[in-house]
Amino acid sequence: MLNKSVVLVLIALLFSVSMSSQIKRDSTVNTSVEELNLDKALLVKREIDPLRPSKAAFYSAILPGLGQVYNKKYWKVPIVVTLITGGILIYDFNNGEYNRYRDAFKRRLAGFTDDEFFGNGTTPIISDDGLIRAQRQFRRNRDIALLLTIGFYALNIIDANVDAHLLQFNVDENLAMRPHFQYNPMEDSSDLGVTLNFKF
Fold first, then answer.
1. CA distance 90 to 84
2. Are 180 and 195 in contact (CB under 8 A)?
3. Which carries the bigger pLDDT value, residue 114 or residue 14?
């Protein structure tokens, strides 16, 4: 029963394919696309300034965010300023805490018990080992904040340079990539593809 069904489906498919190939198409149908006549005044080419990316990078190196202003990407300025200022503030906080714990540890090594972490009793609030651990933690956080701040600064310069390069990228109609639909009369179907056009 199953074999008969499969054979019948295959025979029906075979006849439908052969019948559709016998259909005659109108040979007078024009399937070409007419070219558009564009006014030459509309196709004004922008001058490419080869120094624009280096200027943007230089401005960002002098003052973070200035390269983004030069590229007219004003929305990036608060991001750049926040990242770099935040990194500097975190570095400053961790450096201050590191110095507090280091000074207290140095006074304890010298034999004094009057540091801010000793307290009023005979037993210190934070032990010597606690001071050492706190110094390590704040020094590590300070160093990470410094590396992140340097990374954000470098990223600011790279972003300004790349953005200036991309502003000069040619995206006019002389260089276009468009989907291409063409009717294929031999197969009675549409052909799909992508065309890349260069106009010199």
1. 10
2. yes
3. 114
**Residue 168 one-letter amino acid:** Q
In the block, tokens 């065309």 appear at 195
DSSP H or E run through 111? none
How many angstroms separate the CA atoms of 181 and 198, rounded?
Answer: 19
What is the number of alpha carbons within 13 Å of residue 73 lying toward its C-beta? 20
Chain-centroid distance of CA 84 in Å reads 18
Q: 59: closest CA among 199, 164, 189, 181?
A: 164
Phi, psi of 73 (to 5 degrees): -110, 70
What was the pLDDT predicted at 173?
Answer: 61
In tens, the pLDDT along 56-72 reads: 999 999 999 999 999 99
How far CA 72 is from CA of 93, 129, 165, 170, in Å, comes to 34, 53, 13, 18
196 pLDDT higher than 90? no
Residues 184 and 28: their CA atoms lie apart, in Å, by 14
Q: Is the pLDDT of residue 85 over 80?
A: yes
3-state secondary structure of 195: strand
Can you tell me whether residue 192 is helix, strand or coil? strand
- Distance, CA of 132 to CA of 101 (rounded, Å): 8
